[in-house]
Write a structure and sequence with these properties.
Length: 432
């Protein structure tokens, strides 16, 4: 490596001089999860570049500009039921009435004439209500015989008519900028006749795993080696976040190799996510290399799993150095990276769905840190929610995340929670 640390720092990150002032790893004060998240979110500048995309490719994308309705939806009054279109003035308020059926209006094939007084038109769901008609009689309440209908029930003027603009009024802002588009949103935009949306470009995220023990799938494991599973959990979670991903593979526990990987990653990524190498072991070089290349904070977050967390900037890219233990990687991604990527993507960070649930068995924990256990939320026969921890809770037991559908949040101050107590759970639904 020909660059001196100072050279590389000057070229990659002009603010490197400030790196010396970064938080000290030996600082005994740990941050709370909320503080860590707030500091991360404060450092994120949302993306501004935008592009036009077809609706089919717009699911999960974030609107760069509001969607404004250029037309009313529906554009014509139409029937909500199969039956007969009539003028309510032609029916008595009580007693029965008989009207001749003079035509039919089908969805897409309207009855184009004005409804003459004292007549009815057969009408199907979604068909235009003819001029002169204001009310629909549903077919189940009407007897038709020899081209005449007989009705002897009650009715209300305007019943079963869908009005112009009752779904969306022309000129209204239907979806605001910053909205992450759902399938329902795509349908709403399509109902306006608009085939494209202006969305923000996706966040570009480069990621890699660090560790000499890591092997790529397909390789044979030597003694003490393991498969790089974080590469797959991170790829999955980044995909679910809507990121454009650059997978930089596995990087060994070697400062020069790490430096090369960081330089490559910082070239055009909006964010860099790594796993491993952020604790204080002798082969944990991430911190040292980052301190030379960028502006980085190392935090101990008062939580388990996932205590050490590196966050900062490398050039213009956000940097997240996640702990390597597979459960810690996932939990810290869930709590810190996902909300940051939401903000980067130009939208409000998604909150996990939370609930109170009864713990099925007692748990013990240390005071002074929030502990997150992996749990399975279940609705009991009486309608209440219960949650069971999914087996062993070590930070390396990834299968316990796979079996879980939520995190059980055990507050910082408590030491023990008895079976049957209510605990907060955060659902994984749609998030990881
Ligand atoms: P580290 O954070 O590098 O100290 O790693 C902590 C633990 O996580 C060690 O047991 C590592 O072997 C394991 N680990 C680190 N990176 C990965 C990875 N990409 N996939 C699976 N396990 C990992
Ligand atoms: Mg390591």
């Amino acid at each position: 490596m020909s660059d001196t640390p100072n050279d590389s720092a000057t070229r990659l990150a002009p603010d490197v001089a400030a790196a010396a002032a970064c938080c000290d790893d030996h600082d005994p004060t740990s941050l709370s999860c909320e503080e860590a998240l707030n500091r991360i979110l404060e450092a994120v500048t949302p993306i501004v570049g935008s592009e036009r995309v077809h609706l089919r490719g717009a699911l999960g994308r974030v609107l760069a500009a509001p969607v404004v309705a250029r037309a009313d939806v529906p554009a014509h009054p139409n029937s909500a039921m199969d039956g007969y279109a009539i003028n309510a003035d032609d029916l008595p308020t009580s007693g029965s009435a008989e009207l001749p059926v003079v035509g039919a209006s089908f969805a897409g094939k309207p009855y184009r004439e004005r409804l003459a007084r004292g007549t009815a038109v057969r009408i199907m769901t979604g068909a235009v209500v003819p001029d002169g008609a204001d009310t629909i009689l549903i077919q189940e309440r009407v007897a038709e015989h020899d081209g005449r209908i007989r009705f002897d029930g009650e009715h209300q003027r305007g019943q079963h008519v869908r009005h112009i603009g009752e779904d969306v009024k022309r000129g209204t802002e239907v979806l605001g900028a910053g909205r992450r588009l759902t399938a329902a949103d795509l349908g709403v935009i399509a109902s306006l006749g608009q085939g494209e949306a202006t969305v923000l470009r996706r966040p570009r995220v480069a990621f890699f795993s660090t560790g000499d023990e890591l092997r790529t799938l397909g390789e044979t494991l030597g003694l003490g080696e393991i498969y790089d599973s974080n590469r797959y959990t991170l790829h999955g979670m980044l995909s679910a976040c809507g990121a454009e991903i650059a997978d930089l593979g596995i990087v060994g526990d070697d400062p020069a190799e790490l430096e090369r990987a960081f330089r490559t990653a910082a070239r055009d990524a909006d964010a860099i996510v790594t796993s491993g190498g952020v604790s204080v072991g002798e082969a944990d070089y991430t911190r040292e290399v980052l301190a030379r290349l960028g502006k980085v904070h190392f935090w101990k977050v008062a939580m388990k799993p996932g205590r050490p967390l590196a966050f900062g900037k490398l050039g213009n890219a956000l940097f997240f150095g996640l702990p390597g233990n597979p459960v810690s990687t996932m939990v810290t991604f869930f709590l810190f990276v996902r909300p940051a990527l939401d903000r980067l993507a130009g939208t409000v960070p998604r909150q996990p769905w939370t609930a109170s649930a009864r713990l099925t068995r007692g748990v013990k924990k240390r005071a002074g840190r929030v502990e997150f256990q992996r749990g399975r939320l279940h609705r009991e026969a009486d309608g209440t929610l219960s949650v069971a921890p999914t087996g062993a809770q070590g930070s390396g037991i990834l299968s316990s995340v796979s079996q879980a559908n939520c995190l059980i949040v055990l507050p910082s101050h408590v030491l023990q929670i008895d079976a049957g107590s209510l605990v907060e759970v955060q659902s994984f639904e749609g998030l990881i």
